[in-house]
Specification:
The protein is mainly alpha-helical. It is built from eight helices and no strands.
Length: about 240
């Protein structure tokens, strides 16, 4: 997970923007072509590629907010994040169950006969869980914005209130690439976790060292000049 997080934080704003925005679009086109071809082959592709791409995008988002609210928070601010972790795993479970429900599994093809009371209970539980997921997403966004704002005020001073950070994170995936540059500047400036993003190349002045052949030629020239004028290299 550490390697994946470092890879994520080393991405440029353009790169992370292409992954979050362009990848689902391209995968959606490929998924549409596969569905079109499957009509003629009378077969079904078992893995929903578009849903998989959306799941990857959400996993990137969750890794991104975890890095701030847990990893950096634990090292720098040390703010209690118990509720954040609970909300995080509620949202993570929801994303995984949502993807699994889209798979073409044999268990979904079987008929399930349930009592009306059980169906009503399931509907109520699903409604409560959906509200929990929505509340978790909002809380995760607010908490991460709070962490970023505190880091910014104390260190880089990007913004002075939490609202801009909240809006950028809440409008995921659009806002994440906009924050990526500030994130990299902060990590590099304070030398956290060994991140280094500067692309400036410092050129060292090469020290001139003459070769043996050149030194011998210089000595020969001095000897020839010395023969013509022995006092040439003598101090005056």
């Amino acid at each position: 997970m550490v390697k994946v997080t470092k890879w994520l934080m080393n991405l440029s704003p353009l790169q992370i923007g292409l992954i979050l925005l362009l990848m689902p679009f391209l995968v959606g086109i490929v998924n549409g072509l596969i569905s079109f071809i499957s009509i003629f082959l009378d077969a079904e592709f078992p893995i929903p590629l578009f849903r998989l791409a959306i799941l990857i995008v959400h996993m990137i988002f969750m890794l991104w907010i975890w890095f701030f609210s847990v990893t950096i928070n634990r090292k720098v601010l040390k703010i209690n994040n118990t509720l954040f972790k609970i909300g995080f795993f509620i949202l993570l479970l929801y994303r995984l169950l949502e993807f699994i429900s889209q798979l073409n599994l044999d268990i979904y093809k079987k008929g399930w006969y349930l009592d009306n009371n059980i169906i009503s209970l399931i509907d109520i539980l699903m409604s409560i869980y959906t509200l929990l997921v929505l509340a978790s997403y909002i809380y995760l966004t607010i908490f991460t914005a709070k962490i970023i704002t505190k880091l910014s005020i104390e260190k880089v001073k990007l913004f002075t209130i939490e609202i801009p950070h909240f809006l950028l994170i809440f409008t995921f995936p659009i806002g994440i690439p906009l924050l990526q540059t500030h994130v990299q500047n902060y990590l590099e400036k304070h030398e956290l976790f060994g991140f280094y993003f500067s692309k400036k190349v410092i050129l060292k002045k090469a020290k001139y060292e003459p070769t043996k052949e050149i030194e011998e030629k210089i000595k020969e020239q001095k000897n020839e000049i010395n023969k013509e004028d022995p006092n040439r290299f003598m101090p005056k």
